[in-house]
Design brief:
Length: 209
């Protein structure tokens, strides 16, 4: 099973959601395109948060120095991102794939992050905020996925509890709420493992064609 963690925006909480998913699925992690290499990378952050061994983490197909949109980071690095050069690693575990930015972030002059989901044959999990504005951003992202006929397992909410937004997302989004990750004082393995799924994970993925 390949789960593609995408988001409604940059900084929405995809990396934290990926760490949560790894712990609850006992999975492996892969970020195909990493933009920004100064400081802690997303792979390193997920490994720190989960405490899982190095062999669970697979290197990026593209590791680009500048923390910019992938197409621009690649241009500045003198390379061009090609979907044909991105192949999912072999693993017997559920593979948690973390995207970069949102669905319509460009990878090159023709293709976007949403095309990478199609290329990898992955199931989308959409990470969204709980706060004001999330309904519009989330429903637009779900519409983009549905226009491409991409399978959607559900939503992971990140932020303070806002029941009215959660209920609206479930009603109008017509997808399961997989988890809600509240603000945490420390992003540790214990803290993430203590957050239960809001639906049966096997059922969430089983419902996807």
């Amino acid at each position: 099973m390949r789960m593609f963690i995408t988001g409604t925006d940059t900084g929405v909480g995809k990396t934290v959601a990926a760490a949560w998913a790894m712990l609850h699925l006992d999975g492996a992690y892969w970020k195909p395109v990493q933009s920004g290499l100064d400081g802690e990378t997303d792979l390193e952050a997920v490994r720190r948060m989960t405490g899982l061994p190095q062999e669970r983490f697979h290197p990026s197909a593209y590791a680009l120095p500048d923390p910019l949109s992938p197409h621009e980071a690649a241009r500045r690095a003198g390379v061009s991102i090609a979907l044909s050069e991105i192949t999912a690693p072999e693993t017997a575990r559920p593979l948690v794939i973390e995207g970069a930015g949102g669905l319509l972030v460009p990878l090159n002059d023709r293709e976007m992050m949403i095309d990478l989901i199609t290329h990898l044959g992955a199931v989308a999990v959409l990470v969204c905020r709980t706060t004001l504005g999330t309904i519009n951003h989330t429903l637009l992202s779900l519409e983009a996925l549905r226009r491409r006929n991409l399978p959607i397992a559900g939503l992971i909410l990140v932020g303070p509890e806002m029941a009215h937004n959660r209920e609206a997302l479930a009603q109008f989004g017509r997808v399961p709420i997989i988890a809600h990750i509240p603000p945490l004082p420390d992003l540790t393995r214990a803290a993430l493992a203590a957050i239960p799924p809001r639906c049966d994970l096997e059922s969430a993925f089983a419902r996807v064609p």
